[in-house]
Write a structure and sequence with these properties.
Layout (H helix, E strand, L loop, with lengths): L1 H11 L19 H19 L9 H36 L2 H6 L2 H18 L3 H21 L4 E5 L7 E5 L2
Antiparallel strand pairs: 1-2
Helix pairs in contact: 2-3, 2-6, 3-5, 5-6
Length: about 170
Amino acid sequence: MTNLVERLFERLLPATPVFAHCDIPCGIYDPHEAQIGALTVLRMVQLANDLAPPGPEGSAEARRDFHAKLARYTATKEAHAEVVKHQVRVIWGDYFTADMVKEFPEVNDLVAKILRDASKARQQFSLEAANALVADVQKFAEIFWKTKKVETKKIPSHQKSGGDLVVPAA
């Protein structure tokens, strides 16, 4: 009898899925992962641009190795560009309030630019596009921390791509 009541209840009032940063209102947001994603995009562009294709005299093995490396760099670059887009969208959509946007009106255009930068970085192996993505994500991180009244500083990322991370100063 209980099973019948449960099925009837589910039919009359079906559960609606809800989505959030971590599927519970945890209130924990940090642009660090977006910054690491942007630096990863930059590093994959650097590696791909430094990759020398085998010449016409190159062996089949050298061609396979070249294509395998390029495919890995491309896949990693694209995956991390999506990480950037996801992290920025979540923070912007779930964390930023109307009052924060009034205080930092440039954030909406900056988010749109980051999303375009990440798409552009996916489409090409351009150092210019990758560096623009890193710089814009850093600006976003600075604004994010300002909304929390936290002073920031740039520290070296110590990653092979180079670049800095925007972190709380204290």
